Amino acid sequence: MEQLKIGDISIEYELYRSKKAKKVCLTIKNKRVRVAVPQELPLEYAKDFVEKNKEWILEHYRKQSSKTQNLPKKYLPGDKLFYRGRNYPLKYVETSNSKHYAQFIGSRILVYVPPGLEPEKRSDLGKTLIEQWYRDQAEKILSEQVHYYAKKLDISFNKLKIKDQKTRWGSCSTKGNINLNWRIIMAPNQVIAYVIIHELTHLIYMNHSTEFWKRVEQYMPDYRKWKKWLDDNGNQLFI
Known about the structure:
Blueprint: E1 2-6, E2 9-18, E3 25-29, E4 32-38, H1 43-52, H2 54-69, E5 80-83, E6 86-94, E7 102-105, E8 108-113, H3 119-153, E9 160-163, E10 170-172, E11 178-181, H4 189-202, H5 210-219, H6 223-233
Parallel strand pairs: 2-4, 6-8, 9-11
Antiparallel strand pairs: 1-2, 3-4, 5-6, 7-8, 10-11
Helix pairs in contact: 3-4, 4-5, 4-6
């Protein structure tokens, strides 16, 4: 087994020869990292490939780890929920009003539900209403932030979409479209800024070259700090 060092994290991976592989192929399943290497390629080439993709490996390795370690939220009264980098307590408010929703008031996330619901049904409804509230906040706040940073970076974009992405915080296309994961509305403002600057910069550099990171650093000198926050805490943003 080989060792991949990423900061103070060490991940084991297996190199193996494959007659079917036409190129080096990475797979992560059940937290096991395997690298298929074509017969004609030297193993050193494959090791270099792993090094160049270590950020991708770490991201997906952590996601698989979080799925096996984290229990799903129960959405009980008093549970703490992330919003823009801080934890706020959840409170249910019973109302006879036909409209049920969530909102942020007085450093608490309030969820208005029908009276007399069983705890399990209340939690299920609470999850739905909280997610919708997050999405509504993301639509408003992320749109404002993208327009702000596009102007600051002097980069134009075509369309912005707030999406439910399972494996990415953001993405962009050659057509100039920006996609953002609504879940980043839970992260600190600096993390939101980092993700937006990252994707806008990709409209100039469609890669992670030295020039790309220099451009990101130009507008966010401490981006490494917030990138690390996302690497370390991103699994907590999946409700």
